[in-house]
Amino acid sequence: MAVKVTWFGHSVAQVETDQVNLLIDPFFTGNDKASLTKDEVNPDVIVVTHGHGDHVGDTVEIAKRTGALVISNFEIINWLQEQGVENVHPQHIGGGFNYEWGRLKLTIAHHGSGLPDGSYGGNPAGVLLTVGGKTVYHAGDTGLFYDMKLIGDEGVDLAILPIGDNFTMGPDDAHRAVELIRPKIVVPIHFDTFDVIQQDAQAWVDRAAKRFDVDARLMAPGDTVEL
Ligand code: NI
Ligand code: MN
Fold first, then answer.
1. Centre of ligand 1 from the C-alpha of residue 163, in Å
2. If exposure means fewest CB atoms within 10 Å of the residue's CB, which of 2, 91, 151, 218 is most exposed?
3. In 3D, which of 139, 121, 33 has the Cα closest to residue 82?
4. 97 C-alpha vs ligand 1 centroid, how far in Å?
């Protein structure tokens, strides 16, 4: 089964199989780098890694319009329910669940998770997704941590990693992450959206391909990788 992963800019990634259209961190409104608007996506599932505005994004509006199932940590799910989102599934760090379309596990991420209105958003997460026989790791917003090696031990086909620095791993630590995770393909995200996270992503990709046995790809917003 083909698994198609499309990046829409910042941390917004869509994973598509025959069975599911899953959208991670749907931040469109206020995101100048997004290749779509919130009205142009039709996910079955939305995953929110943490509470920050550039990740929760348009979750409430898209979930209400499409009826998509929203998966996030317990605290963010409670908050989304207060905003009127009804179709939800809370999980938490280290916990996986077997949905009819695949398995989704929330992993640790070292970051914050406060919600846009100041509400408590629990702990931030990464997402380890197994769909269509492929494993995709979206690290969310995080600093480098050595347990990425354990995530890599599960066999990662595609790693989607922040490289922007300032709020998350920067280029050098993101390279060390590639070394720990050992993915077949790596795609950099969470750069250039804001002034303080400007990076030369092409240079990062070129250096990753030179240093590691990895297919490092720079995507433009709207580009798709097929696994
Ligand atoms: Ni964040
Ligand atoms: Mn962020």
1. 13
2. 2
3. 121
4. 24
CB proximity list for 35: less than 8 A, separation 6 or greater? 8, 9, 220, 221, 222
For 37, residues 6+ apart whose C-beta sits below 8 A from its C-beta are 28, 29
DSSP lists the bridge partners of residue 188 as: 161
Q: How far is CA 45 from the centre of its chain?
A: 13
- The conformation of residue 218, written as its DSSP 8-state character, comes to P
> What pLDDT score was predicted for residue 131?
98
Name every residue whose Cβ is closer than 8 Å to that of residue 218 and which is 6 or more positions away in sequence.
Answer: 187, 188, 201, 202, 204, 205
pTM of this structure: 0.98
Reference 137, options 168, 102, 106; nearest CA is 106
Q: What is the mean pLDDT of the chain?
A: 98
Dump pLDDT digits (tens) for 106-151. Answer: 999 999 999 999 999 999 999 999 999 999 999 999 999 999 999 9
How many angstroms is it from 61 CA to the middle of ligand 1?
20
Which band of pLDDT confidence, cut at 50, 70 and 90, is reported for residue 51? very high
Ligand number nearest CA of 124 is 1
CB 52, CB 112: distance < 8 Å: yes
Residue 55 CA to ligand 1 centre (angstroms): 7
DSSP code, position 217: -
- The burial class, CB within 10 Å (0-12 / 13-18 / 19+), for 173 is middle
Q: Show the tokens assigned to 131.
A: 């769909």
Question: How far is 46 from 121, CA to CA, in rounded Å?
Answer: 17
- Of the ligands numbered here, which is closest to the C-alpha atom of 190? 2
